[in-house]
């Protein structure tokens, strides 16, 4: 488990360094996750130790939201003052997410339907 955690944190560190070195407008952990994904694709499988560690992290993911919830409660007066932009951002991002998901689903279904007809 320690080796898998080290691998996950190392990928995150490499992503963070790459973002800061190149100025990419992406979060470092996202770049690190993409690097991990590419490495796993090259390897062709997910090592069992990594799968077990990722599973343990996912089972306890809700604990990682506690600090964010505490932060919101500490700054509740700011949230009360800025409720309109926060609500607009939440609703807007939800609408955009649903729209993009629908478009991707539509494109993938057309692509898979076309691939099935060729066989």
Please explain how this structure is put together.
This protein is mainly α and 119 residues long. The protein has two domains: 1-59; 65-119. The chain is built from six helices and no strands. It has helices at residues 2-22, 28-43, 48-59, 66-74, 76-81, 83-118. The mean pLDDT is 92.
Strand-helix topology:
Layout: H1 2-22, H2 28-43, H3 48-59, H4 66-74, H5 76-81, H6 83-118
Q: Please tell me the overall pLDDT.
A: 92
Q: Could you give a short account of the major beta sheet? A: none
Give me the secondary-structure category. Answer: mainly alpha
Q: Could you give the distance between the termini? A: 43 Å
Strand segment tally: 0
What's the oligomerization state? single chain
* Strand residue percentage: under 5%
Overall number of domains: 2
pLDDT below 50 for ≥5 consecutive residues: which ranges? none
Report the total helices.
6
Task: Evaluate the radius of gyration.
Answer: 20 Å
Shape assignment = extended
Order of helices and strands: HHHHHH
What proportion of the residues is helical, as a percent range? over 70%
From the structure above, extract its key features:
2 domains
Give a short overview:
The chain contains 6 helices and no strands. The chain is mostly helical and 119 residues long.
């Amino acid at each position: 488990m320690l080796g898998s955690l080290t691998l996950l944190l190392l990928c995150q560190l490499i992503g963070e360094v790459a973002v800061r070195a190149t100025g990419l407008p992406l979060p470092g952990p996202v770049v690190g996750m993409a690097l991990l994904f590419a490495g796993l694709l090259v390897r062709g499988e997910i090592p069992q130790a990594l799968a077990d560690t990722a599973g343990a992290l996912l089972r306890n993911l809700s604990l990682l939201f506690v600090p964010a919830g505490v932060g919101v409660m500490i700054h509740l007066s700011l949230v009360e003052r800025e409720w309109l932009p926060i609500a607009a951002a939440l609703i807007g991002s939800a609408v955009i997410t649903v729209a993009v998901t629908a478009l991707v689903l539509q494109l993938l279904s057309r692509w898979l339907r076309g691939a099935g007809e060729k066989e």
